[in-house]
Specification:
The chain is α+β, with helices and mostly antiparallel strands. It contains four helices and eight strands. It has two domains: about 70 residues, Immunoglobulin-like (Sandwich); about 90 residues, Orthogonal Bundle (Muramoyl-pentapeptide Carboxypeptidase, domain 1). The radius of gyration is 21 Å and the shape is globular.
Length: about 190
Amino acid sequence: MNVLMPGDMVVIPDKQIKELPRPVEKRHIFVRKGFRALYRLQVFDYEEPRACQDYTLVIDDKLTFQGTTDKSGTLEHYIPANSRKGQLTIGEEEAQLSIRFGYLDPIEENTGVQKRLINLGFYAGEAHGKLDDATENAIKIFQLRFGLEPTGQADDDTIGKLKGMHDIISEFPPVPNQTDSSPDSGASDAGA
């Protein structure tokens, strides 16, 4: 969200004057409200949504939200647009999740694919942007899990499924029938 990638275009609009009618010869105080962003997170325990679980979300060590996830394991809050980090504590066991805001690259970039695979639990490496063996293996495991051809490449079908599972509130579909008995086919359950 806050990262410029090569080829991105930045457009800064001209300033616009906002006029508000107010009576003369009186004192008026104007307060500019800060920009807020909607933060939405769906939380899973493996492939099961953390539905109806109490949580505490702390933003930049300053702002605290408490609530209960909905039936899909989702929470959402308006947070300052310049937020940088968050800490989520959820469930009876008080599981902890560290969050970094503004660091998810576009899905069209290799780092964007890697970061989404990391977030979904399919890749344990670093988001360095290189399509190395570890990244290709993670993509294959993801493809197998979701019934796609296991090419190890981030093709259009893979990008679409990755976007659907990461960027949109959804449920994990049932595991597709695996007819392949290769060692990689069993890894699909372990990676999910």
